[in-house]
Amino acid sequence: xxxxxxxxxxxxxxxxxxxxxxxxxxxxxxxxxxxxxxxxxxxxxxxxxxxxxxxxxxxxxxxxxxxxxxxxxxxxxxxxxxxxxxxxxxxxxxxxxxxxxxxxxxxxxxxxxxxxxxxxxxxxxxxxxxxxxxxxxxxxxxxxxxxxxxxxxxxxxxxxxxxxxxxxxxxxxxxxxxxxxxxxxxxxxxxxxxxxxxxxxxxxxxxxxxxxxxxxxxxxxxxxxxxxxxxxxxxxxxxxxxxxxxxxxxxxxxxxxxxxxxxxxxxxxxxxxxxxxxxxxxxxxxxxxxxxxxxxxxxxxxxxxxxxxxxxxxxxxxxxxxxxxxxxxxxxxxxxxxxxxxxx
Length: 344
What we know:
Elements: H1 17-36, H2 44-67, E1 73-74, E2 77-78, H3 80-101, H4 107-111, H5 118-128, H6 130-135, H7 138-152, H8 164-169, H9 171-179, H10 182-188, H11 193-210, H12 232-256, H13 263-269, H14 271-287, H15 302-318, H16 324-329, H17 335-338
Antiparallel strand pairs: 1-2
């Protein structure tokens, strides 16, 4: 969730409010999606919110991660330290989550990522692929990652082993961000057809509000780790549909997100700490308390107000400024200097 190493640019251009705002908005949706998850099948209002959030929030987050991954491989040098940092942080996050969940910590459980830590492991995989992406022309790189994504649905990877399922499923979004530039995305949001995307996204959301079954044909594909059901053609069609819907909604969000600095900008700089801590809080509420057993949470009005308020509170608490530097420093550890050097 933290930025990969920034593109080489003048100091004044190193942070662009638009992209921090996008990350800030998306991390709010991530927290909301996880907080409401335990009751999203029983509270109809939160069920609709959950489905709409999952249409686009992860593809767009992956795209932004790819956008800022360009310096992971530059001038023939791969930043192996960043890759190791993502993997180590993912493993530590996984171990902490298992402990909070009350699940035995074993080698197998540490290597299966069915929940939040998968993203950090996937970042290690995607970052490792940047040398290949850099050598491929964008059209070929996109074609290969799209083919891998579509074919990954043929394999049962739901257990989350090494986060391979989601890594492959969302790979085209990382590649798209990698091949795009910040200037291109900033220009894209000024195009008039983005308003058409806003209109279509509104219709997509309205369809889910009107009909709880509106997304049934493709909703399993938005999670990234579900294999195809039925025929291969139907499975590929459902994944492509999910991608197209995510693209439309992402364009709409890009258009509507403010480009000036504000509170979202601050949240966008602190996504890593929010991502890790909020999921541990959710796990504690689920497995260490009876919070989610309260019948009131299933009520459309009262339950929705309670859980959305809780989501906002969790974002506020986990975005504590004092945690920004320690968390971000975890991704700048010089692992190569910690390893013993061979005697010459």
